[in-house]
Automatic annotation (TrEMBL):
SUPFAM superfamilies: vWA-like
Gene3D superfamilies to which the protein is assigned, alphabetical: von Willebrand factor, type A domain (3.40.50.410)
Limits of the VWFA domain: 72-172
Superkingdom of source: Eukaryota
Name the UniProt record assigns to this protein: ITA10 protein
Originating species: Vidua macroura
Database matches in PROSITE patterns: VWFA
Length: 172
């Protein structure tokens, strides 16, 4: 028979198992549905509950797990005049960011830059893809300033940068 469009996913097709539901609908399961975590894929299975008109009303992934790369990272970056040349800082930042598995349910990165003033360059989750994050790092400009307020920046990162208002996630 023809496949129903919403039964297809990037990881395969649902419908490997089809069971009547008590409410008159069905439950379609794909035991080989995969969950990506960085460079690993966990084949944990997924089911979709369908109503009588075969419209999805909910999903279940009984063995889905949180990726081991589920982290919130805030980089505290010295942008004062004591740091030179800035291009090397941008290259270093890009090199570090390229090593993280960036994405929803995985790693998200924020940057707090300081000199005389503190500036939250971007909050956690503001750049949800590696490409977006690397582009932001390439375009990051230096704050400058004659003072280097390192302790103030670290305190701000610890007290504010991981807050839910700035994109921090419980359990990360």
């Amino acid at each position: 028979g023809a496949a129903v469009p919403w039964l297809r996913s990037s990881a395969g097709r649902l419908g490997m198992t089809l069971v009547d539901s008590k409410d008159g609908g069905f439950v379609a399961c794909a035991p080989l549905w995969s969950q990506e975590c960085g460079t690993s894929a966990f084949s944990s299975g997924r089911c979709v509950q369908l109503d009588q008109e075969l419209q999805p009303v909910g999903t279940m992934a009984p063995t889905a797990q949180r990726c081991p790369t589920y982290m919130d990272i805030v980089l505290v970056l010295d942008g004062s005049n004591s740091i030179y040349p800035w291009e090397e800082v941008q290259a270093f930042l890009g090199n570090i960011l390229a090593r993280f598995f960036i994405g929803p349910g995985q790693t998200q990165v924020g940057v707090l830059q300081y000199g005389e003033h503190l500036v939250q360059e971007w909050a956690l989750g503001q750049h949800p893809t590696a490409q977006s994050l690397l582009e932001a790092a390439r375009n990051l400009t230096r704050q400058e300033g004659r003072e280097t307020r390192t302790a103030m920046a670290i305190r701000e990162a610890c007290t504010e940068s991981f807050s839910p208002a700035r994109g921090g996630r419980p359990g990360a």
